[in-house]
Amino acid sequence: MSFNSKNQLKMDDFIKNTYKFGEICEVLNGRAYKKNELLESGKYTVLRVGNFFSSDHWYYSDLELDANKYCDNGDLLFAWSASFGPKIWDGGKVIYHYHIWKLVPSPFVDTKFLYYWLLFSRNKMLMGVHGSVMGHLTKSSFEKQKISLPDILEQKAIAHILSTLDDKIEVNNQINKTLENMAQAIFKQWFVDFEFPNEDGEPYKSSGGEMIESELGMIPKDWEVGSFSEYISSMLGGDWGKDSPQGNFTQKVYCLRGADINDIVAGNKGKMPERYIIEKNLLKKKLNSGNLVVEISGGSPTQSTGRIAYVSNDLLKRYNSPLVATNFCRAIKLKNDEHMEFFYNYWKTFYQNNIFFHYENGTTGIKNLDITSFIERHPIIIPNENIVNMFTRQAKLFYKMHQNYGVENSQIETLRDSLLPKLMSGEIRVPLDEEGEVS
Q1: Disulfide check for 48: which of 97, 174, 213, 250 has CB 3.0–4.6 Å away?
Q2: How many independent structural domains does the chain possess?
């Protein structure tokens, strides 16, 4: 789609100067859906603010595509309500909801540069947010935002520097996803298919390893059936405290929410909010290395509660204050920290197999996981301790690498975030050669 602003500027107008956003970018509204038009399945995917920055839950529609109200790979979008911010879309052709704008830049404005400018300007824009229940930006105020533009070659050079850093972050994220999948693959091979190494290093079951009857079917000799409760020492409740110090709420902490779990699983730091709790509560709620945090409230019709993340020493060191879980999570402390990798992967297997749907209550609104019933009643296989220890040694190598890439991402993000305002304000200029390349 081409830029078609009534205030369109000519190429000669694009020198280092300040313009209104509406002069250099067309802002297109999304489609305002009625509630009964958002379906659990259908012909077309609908992008809403609720899944703008995540993929937790999607809706669909059978309505025909409006030529001006769908987006495709490479389109620049901006969520103007609830989840504020820009995104360069890469999820294929979808319909975008009314609370999202599609931005069509002038041919003399680089899309990626504009994306980074919007990141840079986001906090300033939020000062103009309206609405007490669900804050929103108005289209008119958005189009009146002032933007300073260097020429197109410098725009592309700035965007290249910043996107190179983001590309490295994404590469690390993909490596971490592979490491996570490798740990899961080994877990399933050993504890689901029973092909762990026998005394001769051969796959146990296919090499004729002895199997015995159990309530879960045939399992290896010397293994038993039990429950997760056999591995758990205690469960810690969460806290939310206050958003600033007041009264007895003086202990600064960071609260690990369900919304942070995917980030942590990916090896990232997460964006845990800073809160203040009563000091004496920290002793019984503080998260320590080896704890496992489970989301017990939330989910959706297609996503259960029960997401899990493990707390490593590397994660704790990335925050300058203690961590606690929120009220919507539970922290699990194991009797033996060496069982953490086994427990974590076993729990993830149940999550992937949608087992937690059977332990939820609350059919409307927010769902709650009956975590006590699950850990006490749901049968699991209790393997030979030597096999668990073998798995732990292998898995620790994966998760150590996982954390290292996460730490590297944090360092890259810090560098990117420090460069962003300097490049956008012109404090740092990108030197270009005669061909317009970075010199």
Answers
A1: 97
A2: 2
Alpha helices by DSSP H, listed for 236-364, are 258-265, 282-285, 313-317, 340-352
The 10s digit of each residue's pLDDT in 252-266 is 999 999 989 988 988
CA distance 241 to 252: 9
- The verdict on 236 and 300 lying in the same domain is yes
Separation CA 285–CA 160 (nearest Å): 44
192 and 133, same structural domain? no
Which CATH number is 254's domain given? Answer: 3.90.220.20
Domain that holds residue 141: 11-149
List, in order, residues 6 or more apart from 306 with CB less than 8 Å away.
Answer: 294, 295, 296, 299, 347, 350, 351, 355, 356, 359, 369, 374
pTM tops 0.85, yes or no: no
Within this chain, do residues 63 and 190 fall inside the same structural domain, yes or no? no
Reported as a single tens digit per residue, the pLDDT across 91-147 is 888 889 889 999 999 998 999 999 999 999 887 776 655 554 456 788 998 899 889
